[in-house]
Inverse folding.
């Protein structure tokens, strides 16, 4: 164990989508990489996702949707985060997200989108890099 | 297969062969230390009669159309009739999907399969706040019987069989299908098709649960009981391993968990007073055709044998139709890649071939663009043509179960049977599938398999062409299907019209009757049929049931 605080991650499934193979694999991979991981389970409203992020005091929020509702749900979550002044959380997205939608999601504040076939080590490296840049020594 | 003496002679010759072949050291083509199937079963370099020393042809294989049905459920299989070519389809409004259905039938598809959107599957009307952004996205939006009427406009229900992938609200969609058939003058006894109605796998892997498990099982049983008495050609459940396989389980786990669920459905129906031979002939199944070609063929053969033995020996079913495992297959969605998507045409082709060599009754082939979006017409046409090429060009349909007797396939069939039965014993010791789901055992086994697989891919112990090897720079995909953004508004508008036109007092009375039936022990179907005819919506009926049954809470373990 290092003396630094562990990175805390909330993995969320907003909306009605039931595909959770990807988030469960990523949850285990992040845990094995030394992060603290909390999973919301399926069918969370944007408000529920943000409340969980607030209560759990997380550094990173990962959103997954494979049902095509990301253009509605992800920006709604970003809006709720801003409303509660939770601007320093790193928010990432994943699932079936068409190329055309990525730029508007990034404009809404999602830092990066990871699509099908992404190596979990790419995500782990990205999270370490982004959270370290902020203020942390890992 | 052979006499002991003959096997001994083969073994002796084999030892000599082994000594005389030039030594290649420990080197293998890909530098692998060992060979295993995609599910992790180890594979020997060579299979011989010695691997089938415990195999008894008449006991373990028998003839097609006969117990234990290892070689198929029909004596002549595809010589008599091809499998039903049934593409899962649905998006946008009922009008959009009706157009796609008629296109598919025009292209030579022989059955329909309805994909519903998530609000429909979870029992919310399109104007419910939780439906926001989800209406018409992954399937067609259905709120009331009016939408279903449009969905099947100009489609002859007495000739085309329809499969509906609907689970928690299966009772409601069955009632609606009966109602629209009634509008066309077709009685329940003339309807062909399937309602998925398999809630157990929703808690395990698929996620469109509504009610807690036990009341949900009571609704399942009500549907099975109603169909047994009124719809002689209707499959009242499709017990599904497909979604567990998609969630990452192995071939053995797919067989074991599906059959464990099947056992639980039979037991539940029996506790509700139904006789096993009354319901078992209308139970159907649904499996994946994954990438490991021979393992999949063996899996289908093993599943048929296990189920028939359970039905005959454990449940003492007398009717041979009760012993048959009849099933639909879909090629593995999780094997599709977003990278170099045209390669998915080939993956799907091999998977479909294994489904046919395994003896399926109906088949869906995935479209090459489905790792990116719902499929375009062009992509669906190629997928359907893939089945037609297998049926009409390859010749694999001309004899029954052509891989029987292959030392490897028969051995793997036995191995999958043995290992599945070990899981079944374990689940039995826990008290059955419901208990194994409530404790999270089945979900945990699947997640572990999915994680192990992912690690193998990342270590390159598993090669995925175009993903971890043979990658290339490619332009972003073009021409993907986009669902109209306005479907949500369109459905909300239809709901406003409906609520303005129907007799709302009648609807309230019908919903009260559903609440009363839910709180009692009687079969829910008649009250749901009445409500649907009075144009109650799916959301209203599910809300009435939620009041009595409560809701299932999401699982947060991983």
């Amino acid at each position: 164990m290092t003396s630094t605080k562990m990175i805390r991650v909330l993995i969320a499934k907003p909306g009605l989508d039931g595909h959770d193979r990807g988030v469960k694999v990523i949850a285990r991979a992040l845990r094995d990489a030394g992060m603290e991981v909390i999973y919301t389970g399926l069918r969370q409203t944007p408000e529920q996702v943000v409340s969980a992020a607030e209560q759990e005091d997380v550094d990173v929020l990962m959103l997954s949707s494979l049902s095509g509702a990301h253009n509605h749900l992800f920006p709604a979550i970003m809006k709720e985060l801003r409303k509660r002044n939770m601007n320093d959380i790193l928010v990432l997205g994943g699932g079936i997200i068409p190329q055309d939608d990525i730029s508007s999601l990034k404009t809404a504040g999602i830092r990066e989108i990871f699509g099908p076939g992404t190596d979990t080590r790419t995500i782990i490296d990205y999270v370490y890099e982004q959270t370290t840049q902020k203020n942390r020594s890992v | 297969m052979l006499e002991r003496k003959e096997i001994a002679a083969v073994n002796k010759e084999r030892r000599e062969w082994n000594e005389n072949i030039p030594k290649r050291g420990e080197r293998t083509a890909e530098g692998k230390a060992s060979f295993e199937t995609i599910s992790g079963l180890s594979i020997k370099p060579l299979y011989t009669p010695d691997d089938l020393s415990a195999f008894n042809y008449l006991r373990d294989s028998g003839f097609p159309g006969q117990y234990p049905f290892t070689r198929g459920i029909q004596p002549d299989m595809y010589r008599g009739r091809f499998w039903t070519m049934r593409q899962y389809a649905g998006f946008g409004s009922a009008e959009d999907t009706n157009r796609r259905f008629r296109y598919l039938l025009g292209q030579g598809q022989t059955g329909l399969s309805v994909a519903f959107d998530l609000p429909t599957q979870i029992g919310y009307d399109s104007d419910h706040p939780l439906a926001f952004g989800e209406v018409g996205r992954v399937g067609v939006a259905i709120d009331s019987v009016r939408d279903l009427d449009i969905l099947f406009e100009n489609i002859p229900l007495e000739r085309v069989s329809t499969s509906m992938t609907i689970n928690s609200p299966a009772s409601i969609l069955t009632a609606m299908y009966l109602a629209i058939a009634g509008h066309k003058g077709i009685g329940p006894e003339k309807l062909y098709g399937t309602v998925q109605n398999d809630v157990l796998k929703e808690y395990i892997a698929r996620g469109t649960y509504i009610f807690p498990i036990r009341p949900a099982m009571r609704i399942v049983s009500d549907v099975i009981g109603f169909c047994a008495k009124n719809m002689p050609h209707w499959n009242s459940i499709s017990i599904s391993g497909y979604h567990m396989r998609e969630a990452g389980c192995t071939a053995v786990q797919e067989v074991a968990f599906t059959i464990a669920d099947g056992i639980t459905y039979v037991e539940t129906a029996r506790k509700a007073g139904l006789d096993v031979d009354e319901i078992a002939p209308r139970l159907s199944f649904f499996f994946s055709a994954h990438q490991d070609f021979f393992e999949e063929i063996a899996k289908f053969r093993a599943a048929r044998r296990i189920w028939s033995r359970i039905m005959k020996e454990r449940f003492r079913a007398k009717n041979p139709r009760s012993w048959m495992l009849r099933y639909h297959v879909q090629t593995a969605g999780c094997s599709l890649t977003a990278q170099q998507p045209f390669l998915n045409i080939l993956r799907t082709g091999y998977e479909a071939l294994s489904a046919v060599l395994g003896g399926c009754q109906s088949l869906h082939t995935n479209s090459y663009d489905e790792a990116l979006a719902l499929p375009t017409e062009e992509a669906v046409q190629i997928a359907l043509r893939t089945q037609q090429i297998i049926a009409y060009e390859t010749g694999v349909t001309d004899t029954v179960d052509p891989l029987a007797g292959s030392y490897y396939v028969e051995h793997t069939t036995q191995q999958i049977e043995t290992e599945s039965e070990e899981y079944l014993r374990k689940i039995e010791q826990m008290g059955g599938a419901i208990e194994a789901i409530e404790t999270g055992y089945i979900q945990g086994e699947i997640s572990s398999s999915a994680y192990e697989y992912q690690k193998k891919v990342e270590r390159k112990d598993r090669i995925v062409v175009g993903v971890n090897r043979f990658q290339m720079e490619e332009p972003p995909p073009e021409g993907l299907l986009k669902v109209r953004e306005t479907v949500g508004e369109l459905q909300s508008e239809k709901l406003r019209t409906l609520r303005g036109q129907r007799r709302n007092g009648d609807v309230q009375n019908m919903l009260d009757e559903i609440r009363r039936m839910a709180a009692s022990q009687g079969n829910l179907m008649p009250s749901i049929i009445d409500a649907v005819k009075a144009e109650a919506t799916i959301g209203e009926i599910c809300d009435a049931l939620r009041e009595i049954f409560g809701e299932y809470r999401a699982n947060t373990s991983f």
Notes: Chain B has three domains: 4-52, 69-440, 487-549. Residues 4-52 of chain B form one domain.
